[in-house]
Design brief:
Bound molecules: uridine-5'-diphosphate-glucuronic acid
Shape: globular
CATH class of the largest domain: Alpha Beta
Number of helices: 18
Helix content: 40-55%
């Protein structure tokens, strides 16, 4: 099939490459000329495991190309809209400028029978509004909403083998078109659900709200564990054995960040309030508050373990991306903690395998190094904030030999506490006695 993908960020670049890899002919469009030049040259503009490989192989087949010129979508019959919906600058609501702009600029190029497919995360009600705009364009094109559930770090696999497909449609003729696009995933057993627009939009935000709630639930238990001497990791293991609860997404620590969970729960509360149902999701404000308190907790612990002040003390911050296997620092708890400690006067040195360039662009006032040992050398305190495998695999004996003081805060409860203690470290986890 001939497809276009509007927006070539973390979502669109992977979607375009994966669709071409599966045999479709794809044109990716973005307003960012630098990003397009990089993708066209086969260089992924961000770190995503597996993307460079499928990008290279899809470009090689000639089925994938990238452009800044919207007119080049002509000839494609399915147009995916994968632009960002960040938090508005002046409220919790989603900023729909890019989605609205993408639809407006697509309109002149749509033809009878074309399908516009929204993938961006939008407030419920958006698809119906956009469908009216597409209808008013008079092309005879249809609109479907097909939310994306990919996780950064696993985006390629999640796109090629999604754990479910959701088609929000107003016209049944959209269904066989989407089935043809996703023939490979459906053939591989991915379940697909056909819903109306509102349900499809809500499925996406409900899923992220549930995941955020699960993380904040265990972090709330960590807060209780901290004042009772209980151990939240053992608690999570024990309740996780109940299949109804499940152990995944029950890792207590510094909490969730990234470009999705934090802004999605905020946009959901803003939308529910607009709909007069603010109380239905009022608990998400508590989920958010618990999450933000975890960052305070890590900063407070740093002050505590350093005897009342971090001023002038060297703190090694291990990890700055919002989670491992990503270079994304959007709303990263790790970056937030580093900035807070710097604000308290600490001599902060940050290291990360992939996230340094993005972090440096946002917070040039921090010191960065690619070399883990350089961050650790003469550190008064080591704080693990993003559990990259290279940090969880560190040899604590070696670390002890280069730091100034054997103090470690494990803000992800990801280190082998017994091994670090055996190497002479005073180990502090979150929610652990
Ligand atoms: C999330 C969802 O998991 C995807 O399903 C969704 O498609 C995506 O948002 C999106 O809306 O586009 P992602 O932002 O890539 O994916 O990251 P997650 O793996 O969900 O992690 C989010 C945050 O939660 C990270 O900061 C992570 O460190 C934290 N987390 C995760 C915990 O603190 N504890 C856990 O047990 C799990």
């Amino acid at each position: 099939m001939k497809l276009s993908v509007i927006g070539c960020g973390y979502l669109g670049a992977v979607h375009a490459s994966a669709m071409a890899e599966l045999g479709h002919e794809v044109v990716g469009v973005d307003v960012d000329a630098g990003k397009i030049a990089s993708l066209a040259a086969g260089r992924a503009p961000f770190f995503e495991p597996g993307l460079p490989e499928i990008l290279a192989s899809a470009l090689e087949t000639g089925r994938l190309r990238f452009t800044t010129d919207m007119a080049e979508v002509q000839g494609a019959s399915v147009h995916f809209v994968a632009v960002g919906t960040p938090q508005s600058k002046d409220s919790y609501a989603a900023d729909l400028t890019y989605v609205d702009g993408a639809i407006e600029s697509l309109l002149p190029y749509l033809s009878e029978g074309d399908l516009v497919v929204g993938k961006s995360t939008v407030p419920v009600g958006t698809a119906a509004r956009l469908a009216e705009i597409v209808d008013a364009g008079g092309s005879g094109a249809m609109l479907a909403w097909n939310p994306e559930f990919l996780r950064e770090g696993y985006a390629v696999k999640d796109t090629i083998e999604p754990d479910r497909l959701v088609y929000g449609v107003a016209d049944d003729r959209a269904v066989p078109i989407l089935d043809e696009v996703y023939a490979s995933a459906i053939g591989g057993g991915s379940p697909r659900l056909v819903t109306d627009y509102a349900t499809a939009e809500l499925v996406k935000v409900a899923a992220n709200a549930f995941l955020a709630t699960k993380i904040s639930f265990i972090n709330a238990m960590a807060e209780i564990a901290e004042v009772t001497g209980a151990d939240v990791t053992q608690l999570a293991d024990a309740i996780g054995h109940d299949a109804r609860i499940g152990r995944r997404f029950l890792n207590a620590g510094v909490g969730f960040g990234g470009g999705c969970l934090p802004k999605d729960i905020r946009a959901f509360t803003a939308r529910a309030e607009e709909l007069g149902r603010g109380e239905s999701v009022a608990f998400l404000k508590e989920v958010d508050a618990i999450n933000m308190r975890r960052r305070d907790r890590v900063a407070d612990l740093a002050v505590e373990v350093l005897g009342g002040s971090v001023f002038g003390r060297k703190v090694a911050v291990l990890g700055v991306s919002f989670k491992p296997h990503s270079d994304d620092v959007r709303d990263s708890p790790a970056l937030d903690v580093a900035v807070r400690l710097k604000g308290l006067g600490a001599d902060v040195v940050v290291t990360d395998p992939e996230g340094l360039d993005n972090a440096r662009a946002r917070h040039p006032q921090l010191l960065y190094t690619e070399v883990t040992d350089e961050a650790l050398r003469h550190a008064d305190l080591t704080v693990l904030v993003t559990e990259w495998p290279e940090y969880t695999a560190l040899d604590p004996e070696h670390v002890a030999s280069i730091v100034r003081q054997p103090l470690v805060i494990d803000a992800r409860n990801a280190l082998d506490s017994a091994a670090w203690k055996a190497a002479g470290f005073a180990y502090t986890g979150l929610g652990r006695s």
